[in-house]
Structure formats: structure tokens, C-alpha cells
TrEMBL record:
Domain HAMP: 281-333
Biological-process GO terms, alphabetical: signal transduction
Any Pfam family: dCache_3
Classification via InterPro entries: Cyclic-di-GMP_PDE-like, dCache_3, EAL_dom, EAL_sf, GGDEF_dom, HAMP_dom, Nucleotide_cyclase, Rev_trsase/Diguanyl_cyclase
Matches recorded under CDD domains: EAL (cd01948), HAMP (cd06225)
The name this protein goes by in its record: EAL domain-containing protein
GO cellular component assignments: membrane
Species of provenance: marine sediment metagenome
GO molecular function: cyclic-guanylate-specific phosphodiesterase activity
Record-annotated EAL domain positions: 505-758
Length: 767
């Protein structure tokens, strides 16, 4: 269940924590008392064990002294020497009775038991079944299956003639006596072959089946801490003395402490709970006041000061909230200003311009909207930096102060430039104002450390003639600015037909990305004629795009758009897959043609491009010799180092390379020499109209000779007449390509063309 109020949560939390802490303390102390009681019982048990052993040893010494007195008596020695068994028995009984021994035994010189005080004269003597030393003066013995403490003394007359032994029974009487002296419960257990024979104990637990292992043990059920001392361990007999210290006696001494601890704990809990209630109330009230202040600030009310008459953390929090109130108010004011103004120039921004333009259109007014931009803005940023450009813009705004009509609106949008709104003016009047504005902006001015004249251009659109929507007018004026040029044509008026071309480019750039998905792309192949053999061994793969609504789009139109918008890489991948699929089909059918395809600068700039080509060929199991790549001079020159690296990797894979459109770029012969290419393709602009002695003929002839001297094959494209074909053949051009030979054909049409022209141009080899 969720507790709503902070004060209640504080009280509950505090009381719970206090209860937990006090409970933990009570439990720890309570547990420690039990542990202390057990340790006390343990110490008592250890002391009692030592006392028990010492008492047995003292009893043994008493018996030893009494026995020594008996064997030293002259009459007893004489009776032993003469073999007077009656006298010996009488003396033994008297001495045993005098010292409290349970038995007196006499052994002859051979060690045989002759007399036992526990048996009648003439009956069998007692049987000593087992003996084990207990101390230097005493032994533990089993006599007639009962345990005894035994001492002995030798009778000399003057030589050893016998031995006297006094036995003290380990029975209940001894146990009770030891209990009184040690304060422990005593238990004697005799067993034979691990089966209990007799038990003498001072406690009721004597009949319980308990372990007699050495060391301290805890008997949970009986409430005792016990230890066992082995007195006799001589197979098959064993005698164990077990001592027990009752835990109840030790725990009783701590009962008063536990009761007092419980009372103290309860009193502490009640007092702590009372203090928790007081403290929670003292905390909750100021927190509630601060929460109400925060709500006011959240509603936008920044007029009430937040204060608390406290010097603690809550007082500091109140001061911080009040400082936040002031800061938010200032920032909101600044945000409101920045929402309507450009921070760099202080002019209105495009939002204000859009709102003013909509208001003017709704009110039925007419007017002109102009967009002005700096011609060399990009170059200035690159040469001098953005801060220089910002300074130039601010100074340009300053120079326009007071130069524009009072009812005009001048705005600035970064990346766009100045926007000028002229209401209730026709186009001619507006152009005069705009031209004066451009002239003023072009005046020489000191910007940082240099003096310069800047060139500005403007695009102009008139409403409501060209539109009645602010967004549409802003788009149209941007198109008009694109038609302006430095010099006399620095002001351009929006023209609808230019807008149509612009809209077409925008649509093509957008739809080109989806052309592969909509299956609007196709591949055609243009044959390449080997002039020496008259055979067609190569074809060039060309892409065609048929838009679903606009119809066929020329490569010159969509390839440029693809390079500008970054879609060229996608088109190249599609083309690679289509060419590889067609090659695999031709190879399977025994048609062996090398296919050339064009690649762009963006393809060469991609370090992964050669690997993708390799993976594609490997996936289709196509030898690299079936593929040729054509790249223009200009593409290589954009990033020569990276382009050359990609070309070398392609060449190492075994793919043939050619320089396309040679003669239209700006590469040097040194650059051409460094290219890892095999073919040089002369641009069609030099081949279309070849005539002996013309400039084009001189260039083509020189190029053929130059290429051959460099070890390159020459491909001439743009062959549109038999004269051009013969002229090239006479100059030893290697390969020809053009409409005169064949237009680009679909795969099926190409196969039919090869069959139909067999013997005319060449023969396609079949496997």
C-alpha cells in the first residue's frame, strides 16, 4: 500500500528503522548471553574435569598410603610368609573397612589372586578381567565385570612374597560424591565389546543413549554440556567417566539481564517513536511549504519569494529554490526573446518571418519576399573560420541600419542568409530596394584584420502571384536564389518551370533509394568489338531505371543524383549482384563473355569494396577474369591514395581494370602510369566526329600511341559510323564500342544479336 503523505512515510520509516536497529541490538545481546552462558558452562566443565581427575588421583594416594601401612605391618608380613590365609583375609577386611575400600585383594609371588575381600572363604576368588594405568600410583580395573580404582603394594619378607591391592568401586556413590565436589553431574559407563554393561549416574539422562566420544558435546534435548574421559580402554572392556554441566544454571544468571534488556528496548522504542513523530513533523512542514513554492514556479508564477526562517539545510534549500526561481524567470525571458530573434544578429528569425508572412497573406496584402546570401560564404569559413564569418554578418547587419524601408522586416537564418519582407510593393519597386541593399552589403568594410568587399546575391518571389502559403513562398525564394549569379544577374526572380525541374530532382533523389525494392532497375549490355580479330569477347554492363510513374530516367540524370545523395554505393551493390547472376547463367550455358561495369569514387573510397567483390565472385563460383571494372580519371583523383589501394587489391584478385572517359579529367601522365590498369578507354567526345587532320583525330591518334607505349589496350567508345570504325582500325585501336556496332541490349537480345551477327563482327565462343 502506497503511503501518500511525506510525514506519515517519515514516521513509518523512522519507527521501522528504529525497531529494526533495537531489535537487532536486542537479538545480538540476547544471543550473546546464551553464548556467554555456554562458555561459562564450558569453563565450568573444564574445571570440573580437572577437579574430577585430581580427586581420583587424591583417592588413589589415600588408598596407596593405607595399603603401604598394611604391607609394612610385621604381623601381616609374617602371615603372608607363613601362608596364613585366614589372618591375611582378616587383615585385608579390617584395612578395607578402615579406609573405605570396596575390595582388598592378595596376590601370591607368582601373581595369582589368592584372596578377595568380596568373596567368602572357600569360594572362588574374584576375577580381575582387565587392568590399565590411571596414574603413577593407581590403575583402573574390571573385577567381576565392575569398574574399580585400584592401588597395589608389594609384601617383602624380606624378599617379595606377595602383593596387596585395594579397590575403590566406580559406582553411584562415588558419582554423587564427585558431583558434590565438582558441581557437575557424573556418569560412569562400563562396556564390553561396545555394549554397555553398567551405568552409574547422578542425573536422569543416564539411561539415554548418548555418545561417549572424547571432547565437549552439547545435548540439546537434556540441556547439558558434556565431556567424556576414558578411564579404561583395553579390549574388550572400556570404562568412561562422563561429566555434564547443566546449561540452565548458567542461563539462570542471565535471566534478570534479559528481562532488563527487554524493558530497556521497549522504553527506547517508545521514546524513539515519539521523537520520530516530532522530527517528521518538523521536516514535513517546511518541505510542504517548499513543494507549494515549487508548484507556483511550475505554473509560471515567479513573483513570490521563497524563504524559510531556518539556518539548516532546509533553509539553504529554500534559498536555492528562490535562486532557481530568479534564474528560470531570466532564462524564460531570454528564451522568449531567442524564440523570436537570431542570437548572432539580434534580427527576427524565420519563425517571425513566417508568422508575419502568413498574417500579410490572410489580410489580403501583396508583396515581395527576398532571400539574400553571401556568394563566397563557404570559402570564407574554410579560409578564415566561423568566427570571422560571424563578425562579417554582424557588421553587415550594422551597415544596413536605417537603409531599409520602415515597414519592411529583415530576418536572419543561419545557413540561409537574410530574409527581407516588403509588403504592399510590386516586383519592380522591390527589386530596386533589394538591389540597393545588395550594393550596401557589397561596400568595402574592415573585418578583423582585413578590408574586403563581399558579393551577395538574392532570390525574389512575389505573392499572391506565386503562392499563398508562407512555407511554399520560402521554398520558392530559395529556388530563385539558386538561379542567381554574381554580377548583373545577382537578383533572380522565381520561375515556375525551374521549380518543376527542382521538384523532379527531389522526387528522383527520394525514389532512387527504393528502385531496387520496386524492381525498377535493369541491366543492359553493349558489345565491345575486338578490331584485330573481329570478335566480341567483352560487353559493358549499363544500368537502366524505369520509374513507375515518370518512365525511363536517363543514366546521366540519376547517376549524378546517386553520387550526390550517397545512393551510388547501393546501386553498385545491386549492379554487382545482377552482373554476377548473369555471368553465372552465361557460363552455365557455355557463353563466355567478359563483363565490364563502372564503379564510382565512393566505391573506391570504401576499403571493404574489394572484399565484397571477392565474396560475390566466390559465392557464384565465377573466375575474376570474367569481370572488368571501369573507373574515371576524376574518381581516382578525389582520393588518389585510397583509390589506388582499392584498385591494386582488385588487380591482385585478377579483375581487369580500365580508365574510363580518358581525356576529360585532369590527371597527369605520371598518375596514369601509376594506375594498375590494363585498358584505356577514350571518351566518346573525341570519337564521335573523327576526320583526318581534325583536332579530335590528332588527340585520339596520340592517345592510342601513348597507351600502346605504356603497354595498355585502347578502347574507343562512341562509334557511330563505318568511317570512324575503319579509321580506328587503321590506327591499331584495340577495341571499339558504339551505336554503330550495337546499342545496349538486354541479355536475351544480346544473345540473339551475337547469333545474328556471327561472321559480320565476330563470333562468340561456346564451350
Amino acid at each position: 500500500m502506497r503511503i501518500r503523505y511525506l510525514r506519515t512515510r517519515l514516521i513509518v520509516t523512522s519507527v521501522c528503522l528504529l525497531s529494526l536497529v533495537l531489535g537487532a541490538v536486542f537479538f545480538a545481546v540476547y544471543t550473546s548471553t546464551d553464548f556467554s552462558a555456554e562458555r561459562q558452562a564450558q569453563r565450568q566443565l573444564e574445571v570440573g574435569s580437572n577437579v574430577f581427575r585430581n580427586l581420583l588421583e587424591a583417592r588413589a594416594r589415600e588408598l596407596t598410603n593405607a595399603t603401604q601401612i598394611l604391607v609394612a605391618d610385621f604381623g601381616f608380613r609374617q602371615a603372608v610368609a607363613t601362608g596364613d590365609l585366614a589372618t591375611i583375609r582378616s587383615a585385608l577386611l579390617n584395612q578395607a573397612s578402615r579406609i573405605g575400600a570396596d575390595q582388598a585383594l592378595f596376590f601370591d609371588a607368582q601373581g595369582d589372586l589368592r584372596i578377595s575381600s568380596a568373596t567368602m572363604p572357600g569360594s572362588d576368588t574374584a576375577q580381575v578381567e582387565s587392568l590399565q594405568a590411571f596414574s603413577e600410583q593407581a590403575l583402573i580395573a574390571m573385577i567381576d565385570h565392575r569398574p574399580y580404582l585400584l592401588v597395589e603394594a608389594v609384601v617383602h619378607a624380606p624378599v617379595p612374597v606377595g602383593q596387596v591391592a585395594m579397590a575403590f568401586s566406580l559406582d553411584a556413590a562415588l558419582a554423587r560424591e564427585m558431583q558434590k565436589l565438582t558441581g557437575l553431574e557424573i556418569r560412569f559407563v562400563s562396556s564390553r565389546d561396545k555394549e554397555v554393561m553398567s551405568t552409574f549416574s547422578t542425573t536422569p539422562y543416564a539411561q539415554q543413549d548418548m555418545s561417549l566420544q572424547q571432547g565437549t558435546q552439547r545435548l540439546e534435548r537434556e540441556g547439558y554440556l558434556t565431556t567424556a574421559i576414558t578411564l579404561l580402554d583395553q579390549a574388550p572392556y572400556s570404562v568412561v567417566a562422563q561429566m555434564a554441566s547443566p546449561l540452565s544454571d548458567a542461563l539462570a544468571s542471565f535471566d534478570d539481564l534479559k528481562r532488563e534488556l527487554l524493558i530497556i528496548t521497549l522504553i527506547a522504542l517508545l521514546a524513539s517513536s515519539f521523537l520520530a513523530v516530532r522530527l517528521s513533523g518538523g521536516l514535513a512542514r517546511p518541505v510542504t511549504l517548499l513543494a507549494e513554492a515549487a508548484k507556483r514556479i511550475g505554473r509560471g508564477d515567479y513573483t513570490h519569494k521563497v524563504t524559510l526562517a531556518r539556518n539548516d539545510e532546509l533553509g539553504l534549500l529554500a534559498e536555492s529554490i528562490d535562486a532557481m526561481r530568479i534564474g528560470i524567470a531570466e532564462r524564460e525571458s531570454l528564451i522568449a526573446h531567442n524564440a523570436l530573434h537570431d542570437p548572432l544578429t539580434g534580427l527576427a528569425n524565420v519563425g517571425v518571418m513566417r508568422e508575419r508572412l502568413n498574417s500579410s497573406i490572410v489580410s489580403g496584402q501583396s508583396g515581395v519576399l527576398a532571400q539574400c546570401n553571401l556568394v563566397t560564404a563557404e570559402l570564407m569559413v574554410k579560409a578564415r573560420g566561423q568566427s570571422f564569418m560571424d563578425t562579417l554578418v554582424r557588421q553587415s547587419v550594422a551597415c544596413l541600419g536605417g537603409q531599409l524601408p520602415a515597414d519592411s522586416l529583415l530576418a536572419w537564418q543561419p545557413g540561409v542568409g537574410f530574409l527581407l519582407l516588403l509588403e504592399r510593393r510590386d516586383l519592380d519597386e522591390a527589386v530596386v530596394v533589394i538591389d540597393a541593399m545588395l550594393a550596401q552589403l557589397g561596400e568595402k568594410m574592415q573585418v578583423e584584420d582585413i578590408k574586403l568587399r563581399s558579393q551577395w546575391m538574392a532570390g525574389v518571389v512575389e505573392w499572391p502571384l506565386q503562392g499563398r502559403d508562407a512555407g511554399e513562398l520560402l521554398r520558392q525564394v530559395s529556388i530563385a536564389l539558386g538561379d542567381a549569379a554574381p554580377g548583373p544577374e545577382r537578383i533572380a526572380v522565381y520561375q515556375a518551370q525551374r521549380d518543376q525541374a527542382y521538384q523532379r530532382r527531389i522526387r528522383l533523389a527520394r525514389d532512387l533509394r527504393y528502385a531496387p525494392e520496386y524492381k525498377e532497375l535493369a541491366v543492359v549490355f553493349q558489345p565491345k568489338l575486338d578490331l584485330a580479330s573481329g570478335e566480341v569477347r567483352q560487353v559493358e554492363a549499363l544500368m537502366r531505371w524505369t520509374h513507375s510513374e515518370l518512365g525511363p530516367i536517363t543514366p546521366d540524370e540519376f547517376i549524378v543524383l546517386a553520387e550526390q545523395t550517397g545512393s551510388i554505393g547501393m546501386l553498385t551493390q545491386w549492379m554487382m549482384a545482377a552482373v554476377a547472376s548473369q555471368l553465372r547463367n552465361w557460363i552455365d550455358r557455355g557463353i563466355h563473355l567478359q563483363v565490364a561495369m563502372n564503379i564510382s569514387a565512393r566505391d573506391l573510397d570504401d576499403p571493404q569494396f574489394p572484399q565484397r567483390i571477392e565474396h560475390l565472385l566466390r559465392a557464384q563460383q565465377i573466375s575474376p577474369e570474367y569481370l572488368s571494372m571501369e573507373v574515371t580519371e576524376s574518381a581516382v583523383m578525389i582520393n588518389p591514395e585510397r583509390s589506388l589501394n582499392s584498385l591494386r587489391v582488385l588487380r591482385d584478385l585478377g579483375i581487369a581494370l580500365a580508365v574510363d572517359d580518358y581525356g576529360t579529367g585532369y590527371s597527369s601522365l605520371a598518375t596514369l602510369k601509376s594506375l594498375p590498369v590494363q585498358d584505356l578507354k577514350i571518351d566518346k567526345s573525341f570519337v564521335l566526329q573523327l576526320a583526318e587532320g581534325s583536332d579530335d583525330a590528332v588527340i585520339v591518334k596520340s592517345t592510342i600511341e601513348l597507351a600502346h607505349n605504356m603497354g595498355l589496350k585502347v578502347i574507343a567508345e562512341g562509334i557511330e559510323s563505318i568511317d570512324s570504325l575503319n579509321w580506328l582500325k587503321e590506327r591499331h585501336c584495340d577495341v571499339a564500342q558504339g551505336y554503330f556496332i550495337s546499342r545496349p541490349l538486354a541479355a536475351a537480345a544480346l544473345e540473339q544479336w551475337l547469333e545474328d551477327t556471327r561472321g559480320t563482327f565476330g563470333v562468340v565462343e561456346s564451350a
